[in-house]
Structure formats: structure tokens, C-alpha cells
Amino acid sequence: MTLKAAYEKGIRQLEQSGIAEYELDAWYLLEHVTGITWALYLLDSKKELDAAQETSYSALLEKRTHRIPLQHLTGVQEFMGLDFQVNEHVLIPRQDTEILVETALEILKDIWQSYEEKTPKMNVLDMCTGSGCIVLSILKLFGHPLSGIGVDISGNALETARKNAENLNLEAVFLQSDLFERVEGQFSMLISNPPYIRSAQIQTLQKEVKEYEPVMALDGGEDGLHFYRKIIQECRQYLISGGYLLFEIGYDQASEVAKLMWNAGFRSIAVKKDLAGLDRVVSGRYDDRIEAR
């Protein structure tokens, strides 16, 4: 079978199975199996797959028709221009979360520029770290001295995060802890993409999400705000005065999360929208002179 024939077969099979981005998925799976680039495909689409490649491609197409996520089949998801290993133990990094990382980088650069001496000990705590994509992207892209800790309750998720750190040649600490249970010290920034889907909505999600991604990383309780309350309530002692708290949020959660932060002593609260124009990130600066309500 030629590359062209295989690709066309993949497109037909995935389209008939109702996969929304059937052309893209068929290509990514072919690229994964053969290692060919799009440019080389255009130059030599009549090149034959060997028997092992043909068998592997067919098997992956079949799995994708059963809604196993594309990223679980390839084992990789690009995020902030970096490749991250993913599996069933972690959420697949999404483009929306890049807004959270971009916001964090902007704030950290502002903090850095405010220092008279350019040797501050700045550190970031990533709560509910999963694959580690948030804290590792920040460490990779910030460009100045910075340390980072990723916290998660799942040991399997942390194993994935450590592999990602190794692959990116980064030093980060990954700590298994139920939120702040084992966390020590104070941080310049606490950043989190916590579970925020309302429990009743889990079963309405795409099959790829509800059946193949970890429910503990999705379920935010009855109103979706359980982890925001917990983190905001407990984080004050782990932030330096003037430190920042940043959250990814659901599209309809900005006002509730902002209110929780305000009542806990956070000021300069800002909401940032994603590329679709939906509220996606809430940030605030902690002032230890303000008593929590």
C-alpha cells in the first residue's frame, strides 16, 4: 500500500466513524507510524509502506474509531511549542491552557524587571500538575533563574511529569501530595489548572474525555468550584506577600473565582479570555496585610 492509499484509507475510515477531525487524525497517525513529513509526502506519496507499518497504521486507525484519543495513540501532545508525553494518567494538554502559561510568563517577567538586583530566588508551585506541562513550560520559556515544584495526588501522573522533565532537560521537583498536605515553603507564584467540571456534566463530555482521561483530573464537585475553594483557602501561607495566584477556569466561573480570591485577600484581580473570547484565566496578587473574610 502506498502512502497516498494509506492516507485516503485512514480518512475514509475515520470519517465513517464520526471522528470530527478525520483528515488531521488520519495524517498524524500516518506520520507517527512512518516518520514522514508532509513535505516528503507531497514529493513521494507513491512510496510503499512496509508490512509492519501497514499493520501498525491499520491497528491505530481501528483504535481511533473507538474514540481512544489521538494523543494516547501517538503518546505525545505539543504544548507551548514543546512535546509532552501523555497517557491515560494525565489530562491531555490543551491550547486553552497555553493562555494560563502565557499569563504566568508575563507576570513573572514583570516581577523580574521590578527587582533591582537580578539574582532573586523566584519559585513557582504548580498545583494539580498532571503531565507537568504548565510548570515545565514556564521553566523552559522564562529565560531567567527560576525553580518549580509540581504537585499532584496521582503517583502515575507524577511519573509522567518526571519523564517530561527529563526529556526537556529540565530540573523540577514533583511531589505527591493531596493539595498542600506535603508542601513546604513559600512561593512567588502559585498556578493551577484544577478539576473544574461540574460532577453532573462529566457524562456529557466527549467519549474521548469521559472514558479515557482521568476523572479525578476533571471532576470539580457539584458546582465545579470545590478545588478553587480549597486552594484559595489554604494557599495564603504558601505565597509571599505580593505573590500571585493564577487559575485556569471554566468559561462561566470567572466571577465566582474572582470573588473567592478577593475575599481571601487577593487584589489586582484580572480575567483573561481565550482565543474563542471566553473567560479562561483569573489572576490576583496576594497582600498579607488584608484579612481574609
Q: What descriptors fit this protein?
A:
293 residues, seven-stranded mixed β-sheet, two-stranded antiparallel sheet, 11 helices, 9 strands, 40% helix
Number of contiguous helices: 11
Strand content: 15-25%
Ends apart, CA distance between termini: 68 Å
Q: Can you give the helix content as a percent range?
A: 40-55%
Average pLDDT taken over every residue: 95
Strand order of the largest sheet: 5-4-3-6-7-9-8
Shape category: elongated
The overall strand count is 9
Uncertain segments are: none
**Biggest sheet, in brief?**
7 strands, mixed
> How would you spell out the order of helices and strands?
HHHHHEEHEHEHEEHHEHEE
Instruction: Name the structural class.
Output: alpha/beta
Query: For the CA atoms, what is the radius of gyration?
Result: 21 Å
